[in-house]
Amino acid sequence: MTRILFVVALLCAFAAPVVNGQSMTKQLIASGLSRPVLAISPDGDMERLFIVEQGNSSSRIARIRIVKNGSMLSTPFLNIDSLVINSGNERGLLGLAFHPNYMQNGYFFVNYNNTSGQTVIRRYQANPPTADTVSLGTGFTLMTISQPYSNHNGGMIAFGPDGYLYIGMGDGGSGNDPGNRAQNLNSLLGKMLRIDVDNPNPGLAYGIPASNPLVGITGRDEIWHWGLRNPWRFSFDRQNGDMWIGDVGQNAREEISYAPAGLGGRNFGWRCMEGNGCTGLSGCTCNSNALADPVHTYFQGSSTGWCVTGGYVYRGCSMPWLQGQYFFGDYLTSKIWTGTLNSSGTALTGIQDRSSQLSSGISGLGSFGQDGLGELYLIARDGGVVYKITSAFGMTQTRSGTPSIGNTVNYNLFSYGQGGLPYIFGLSSNGTYPGMPLPDGRTIPINDDPMLQFALMNPTNTIYSPYGNLAGFLANASVPVNIPNLPFLVGQEFWSAFLTLNTSAPSGVQSISCAIQTTVQ
Prior knowledge:
The protein is mostly beta strands. It has helices at 2-12, 102-105, 355-358, and strands spanning 24-30, 36-40, 48-53, 63-68, 71-72, 78-79, 93-98, 107-113, 119-125, 140-145, 157-159, 165-168, 191-195, 223-226, 233-236, 243-247, 253-259, 273-274, 277-278, 296-299, 308-309, 326-330, 336-341, 348-353, 365-370, 376-380, 385-391, 395-400, 408-415, 423-428, 436-437, 443-444, 453-457, 476-482, 493-501, 509-512, 516-519.
């Protein structure tokens, strides 16, 4: 069947060129939510997207919901509303992070404000990790931090590439950081913290990494960076581990800050600096060489916004022209931009306003999200809606079913605006790199090897290479793969991908899905 693929590609190589669809749109994933503030997936989970609802009032519930294979589950994954304070616009259930080994241990962590307003970092366990509901009784508190005011709680938590948990803490609130907590190294407020959740120190529920910058000197050992006002959303580049922070400004500037992977000890300047400008507040030295300048700032105003929302560096594969671009936006105007870090790591360059493509219908861009394949999401906190950023001709592959011998695994295709086109589904046991090149410069993300099998399908549900049956073939499709009951297959890895064909597209291939890795159990 490999031959059919390349015959199609060659026959179409000389077709008249068309616009390659290098534009973005968005797909509705979930609506009717109660203040959604985050959407993420554990590494290796291709079926589920976990959505955090902030709660924090008598009519809003602090909980985590699951969208599974495109449908919202009726029962929450976790409901901690009884633990969360019911007042304060910036308080509630604010963050979620899955342990790097979640698919083995089921551990995940939440960041919320308890009924006393304190920040709490708490661990729960899903047993088994594939479970869609979790018991409150599995909870274990790692850290509790007092908050002097109701605002500037930070809220984001995320595991870095080093396996440590990072916690973004605001300066404690009010305005202009009246306690100068962001510069006080004996306070955990206004900081980026880094802790070890697997190896606790004596007397603590967590460990202190020995490479934290203040270990053995004056200051709190948990601190990784300081001088932050309210790092509401931060992220790590999936490819290189670099840290990106959206730090909300005071009265003049919003900022994006950056730190290379593994580099701690940066002072981002607040309350002496707001973005790249001096605040003039007492006790401050501006523009010191000891301060880390932001890589991007924008002045507050109606053409930009007043409250930055940090995002992610795009590392998905459905929109290859966006590789390495950082997405960020503004909560109040729902503006969305992208930019690329310059070679010296000092500035975002090539800033593009993507609002005309993505911002329509978004009320309160509270957060971005990222799934297990690196694809990105838009979270409209005030509108209660989650969208997925897609290409105008995008497609997403997911997997359902347990990939064990004797079982059937379904590979599901969700396609946008491509109903009625022929599809190709392929399996390979030989990895994704370097892949199979197409004449137009793109690459099919699986390799040609003796085990490679392709199934070519058309809109009449005819399968030219017998491989299974299609269900609901319009814009979506499902290919069942029966895994033989042969013990020697346990541990075998293979990769899958979908293609859509269009004779008017370059090379005859219109779209290519991200590859999914499957390990037989």
